[in-house]
Amino acid sequence: MTGTALGAPAERREGHQKVTGAARYAAEYAPPGRAHAWPVPAPVARGRVTAVDTSDALALPGVLAVLTPGDAAGLAEPEDGTLAVLRGPDVPHRGWCVALAVAETPEAARAAARAVRVTCATAPHDVGPVEGHPAGYEPQEAGGQPGRLVHGEPEAAFAAAGMRLDVTYRVPPLHNHPMEPHATTAHWDGDRLTVYTSTQGGTAVRSALARMFRLPEERITVVGEHVGGGFGSKGTPRPDVVLAALAARHTGRPVTLDYPRRHLPTVVGHRAPTVQRLRLGAHPDGRLTALLHEVTTHTSRVKEFVEYAAVVSRVLYATENLLSTHRVVPLDVPTPSWMRAPGEAPGMYALESAVDELADALGLDPVELRVRNEPGREPGSGKPFSSRGLVACLREGARRFGWAGRDPRPGVRREGPLLIGTGVAAATYPAQAAPCAATAEALPDGTFTVRVNATDIGTGARTVLAQIAADALGVPLDRVRAEVGNSDLPPAPVAGGSSGTASWGWAVHRACARLAEHPEAGTTVRADTTGEADADSPYARHAFGAHFAEVAVDTVTGEIRVRRLLGVYAAGRILNARTARSQFTGAMVMGLGMALTEHSTLDPAFGDFTEADLASYHVPVQADVPDIEADWIDEDDPHLNPMGSKGIGEIGIVGTAAALGNAVHHATGIRFRELPLTPDRILAGLLSEG
Q1: pTM
Q2: What is the pLDDT of residue 622?
């Protein structure tokens, strides 16, 4: 492989390994003597374990041990309460791990787990709903920002507005279902611990294990060389890594815990449901005079996590009167966590749907309405934008989509029983970076090796980091090798928040730029961006995009078929055209699922989610994916990092659901304000209008 230019569509370096099965994932590591573990979930919504009968389980062939509450009592208390498994008898929610069976084979471990008899004393539980809940409160923080932000006099400005829109949008609980479930293989060698785990951040996993097992970090190695997707659910350490390490220490054997998919909804996080009230006040020409965005969501009693959906209103549109606030209700539910574009994905769905409603009420083109409300500075902070390509994305997307030929009247375009509609939505996502370290070494054969504990979760991190290194060194790409996915490498932040490449690449670029000054064989240069990557910036740094969609709504079945999706993005310098397009389109497909098929139902009787597998939690399949296109505009932003890049992993999902919802409204003339847009909802709406 030759060529050095950043932006070139270089193939993923690990691609051949993956398609031939040579790439090893966490559960595929098999140290000699390996055993297998299977978790036992709590059968009650809230309470205490009063007894655990393991006799039947231990009598089964091949069963080595059953760990029960109290077996982890000797571990230090974790900072993250979701890792406090088997420390005591308390059950904070249904599905909490209350025992762990360990056996010679996965089948024997599963049989043993089913044979364990757990007795619990139940306690009253509360799973909502959140609307009007008396326990709700305003959190201090939401996504690292104040939970509440007010500029001007939003209530008074809204009351005085010539045009007022007051609407509520709802997004249900959503779940990550990565292709590779959460899994860990743990092995002790004396007081040294090695874990092979499916994680988005091995450095964070090592820190958590060191704290809990009271070990120096240098005695722990975390390997995550290949990860089969995460989408946020693997962004923090999960119970599998603690349980596998605990079981391995207890049995003296290497242990693999491959979490069953049906257990994932209760143990690895979810996107919390949101109820979002949007109030928009505007002049007759469409200029906003007031924007009020109020979000209500839930969290667990184990750990506070706020789905910070209202923060998007602090970025997108100009208004002197702004209210952006959150209200969170603690419930006896599994702990919510990151899911691709946490906050922004549901927040942009509600905001961009409301903006579309405003355009319809004013008789204005929805693209032009967005352009008229383009701000000069970030509305929430008052900072100037480092770059802002939203208008360019809207204009280019409209041109490529053929927007000018659209009949704006809803419900008029028909093809037999099909109603055809088109929609648009804007997108934004912050451009972020975190401190990172990396080394670059010049080898005697004229090649170079860069090392950083980055995580490649399927995004092509190895390839892009090699491109960054080759560019900084001024050498062909085939002379650079990148090592990632091992905590013995220089520490790196999580692959999350669309900040991975920006963070790791900054350190790699810095190390290679220094090495290029004296590239003698045997020279190794280390770089650490602490104090730079995490420094406050005088600029508001964001990626932007515009999504366009065309749908066909079947008036007989209520089925929605997406015909076209187009995304145009302004995301700084694109470092690899091939992997970037893959990220954009993958996120757009995930947004399609959010709009049309995906949802979880919180069972009020049991306090867990009824859709616990891929037979009941419906993600898009190949037949659902339409003519989908992603592209970008050239953007030169000198205020980001040495590469001039912005994150691209999440902005593709951010506006897709709203664009699809707006297209459904244009097709039917009916405004649906709750996701997903399933056939039963569509038919009910059509019948009520008919």
Answers
A1: 0.96
A2: 85
